[in-house]
Write a structure and sequence with these properties.
The structure holds two protein chains of two kinds. By secondary structure, chain A is of the alpha+beta class. Chain A has helices spanning 21-29, 63-66, and strands at 11-17, 37-43, 50-54, 57-61, 69-72. In chain A, strands 4-3-2-1-5 form a five-stranded antiparallel β-sheet. By secondary structure, chain B is α/β, with parallel strands linked by helices. In chain B, helix 27 packs antiparallel against helix 29 (648-676). Classes of the chains: A alpha+beta, B alpha/beta.
Amino acid sequence: MTLGELRPGEKAKVVSIGTTGAMRQRILDMGVTPNVEVQLIKVAPLGDPVEITVRGYQLSLRKSEAALIQVQK
Amino acid sequence: MSYTIALAGNPNSGKTTVFNTLTGSRQHVGNWPGVTVDKKEGLYRKNREMKILDLPGTYSLSPYSAEEVIARDFIVNERPDCVIDILDGTSLERNLYLALQIMETGIPTVLGINMMDEVALRKDVIDFKRLEAEFGVFVVPLEARSGKGIDALMDAVSRTIEEKRVPKRLPVYELSKKVDEDTLADKRYSFITEVVGASVKRGTREGEQKKSRTDTIDKVLTHKIWALPAFALIMYLMFAATFSENFLFIPGLPSPGIALATLVENLWGSFTDVVSSALLGAGAATWAYSLVIFGIMEGLGAVLGFLPLILVLYILMSFLEDSGYMARVAFVMDRLFRKFGLSGRSFIPLLMGFGCSVPAIMATRTLDSEKDRKITTLLCGFMPCGAKLPIFIMFVSTFFSDGNKTLVLFFTYMLSLAVSVVVSLIINRVAYKGETSNFLMELPQYRLPTLKSVGIHGYEKVKGFVQKAGTIILAATILIWALSNFNLASFNGGNQQEYGTPLAPIESSFLASTGKAIAPIFKPAGFGAWRPTVGVATGWIAKEMVVVTLAQLYADDISEEYLTEFFSTASEDELLEFGFEEGVYDSEAAGDIYTDVVLMEGGDAQALPTLKEDIKTKQAALAYMAFNLLCMPCFAAVGAMKRELKTWRVTLGQVGIQMLTAYIVAVFINVVGNLLF
């Protein structure tokens, strides 16, 4: 499943990042790397983007970006 | 011997505060990811041989975003004598990722762990000695907001340079060339996790309480249902505090912005009166008097008049930025604005554009990507600012007196939004090939901004506006003054003979002859006559000048007899309300009062009959309103655009797009209107 499919409050472990180039590097640089634990905190009022906790801080990313990140519960 | 010291760090790490403290330079401190985009330099206050360079805030040195490239190139190519990396102590893991990349370059480095007050609140304990031993660099605790630890930081820098201390070579650095990017990022982060695990003792309950304060605030401000009303309320308060004349719905109570603006206006008015009587008393020539009062004083007044609005809006904006709410605005509004090819952060500048484009354009600085900044700056010019309202009111009440005036006014506002959306989508497609910027953005902890940083920001913006935009506004105002007061006969003595002064009446000025030459272009839009054309041009001084100029150019319609008759039906109280002293009709004051009060507020449906010969139909009138709405904004706004866009090429390119858009829309309205009616 992908990070975008998590429900608010659910935790999961990142498996892989399904994109290349600048976007991939940016995701990795922000600390979303394979094996890291992430928690989906909430979805924005208009349904997008989402807020997650990763490595002890809050990160916001669009659903289209979250859909690139494979996770495992 | 002089040294170059580069200041690096994540956005929101407090890097800018450190820079301010070190250099004493006044510069903005924000809580918005990516606020430092310019190259900023300053000398260390206590040792002027140390030059401090503020690198853009970045999360890494990957050469992808413009900011990262700037930071990386500087460190790798310019090889500064020392790099100070500022880290947010409450989020060490992510912050150490950049630190690791900096230390990998082998440049002498000092780590400053900031936000130690918050770290203490969380009861986290950081083992600095251990970190120093691990990386082979000095690690200094900081509380940049209160200035604690800054001297120790600079001592560490001096020692690092003296001892030629370079970071320890770690095995993790050797991986860079050997493994792919995933593994590399993973290895770096695993290494960091290990180091942090060994050198940071996590706090207890109180730490969670601190975290939950941000959570509690966010429960409302990013709540499914309450986020939007809360956002609307905050935006309303911000707008009202700057522009409202009935602040908090209390009739007659001016907002701080308006109160200050009125004060400045009155002071400047009195000063102008003093200068005016001094000039008259000294027997100044008519042209010199006109140049000083209507050229220079008017231009300076235009610059001054914007300062209170900029100051108040910026104090509020930097409060929202420094507190961390701006990132939430982006979070809440992103989806809506992405549809239009903008980012959620564009909302605030565009909203402010309804009040005044000048602070609105300056607010684009807070946007994250260059693309968003450029497009939003362009769109700010399309917003129906307060100064455009008198034009609309005058035209609506003169041309649509028999129809639904409110509906026409509403149409004008909707037109500005619709045009903005269409132009944004076209530019996205044409100039940026539909690229969308990524939205990976930190949602920083809420922090109460310090008075000092908010104050510095407001002061900085005002200073920047005066420096960068002031001369443009003054020069342009004097240029329009010269064009509307001179013609060839000014220089061969013709005017001197005829009028006793070199000045020409506006209807035979250079401006009028230029207007006559250009006017045919506007034939398809329905207002292809020279007087409306000249009105557009004087509107660039300030948009409400369109009304003043039209009153001047159609002076025959505002004869003394006409005014006497118009005001004859008014009672004493009504005359008083119009602004006649003691409620007594005064034919000398009547002209100005008619322009400023009656025309601008739409008080005469039969106004300017000759104007209706130049602009014959309702659709032509609407086209004229649309043109003034969308064409180049006032010179003050253009000055602000130049300040944000940096180059004349881009600024004039944007003005060109605005003129073209205005023309296309005006012609469209007139042509379609003619087909329908």
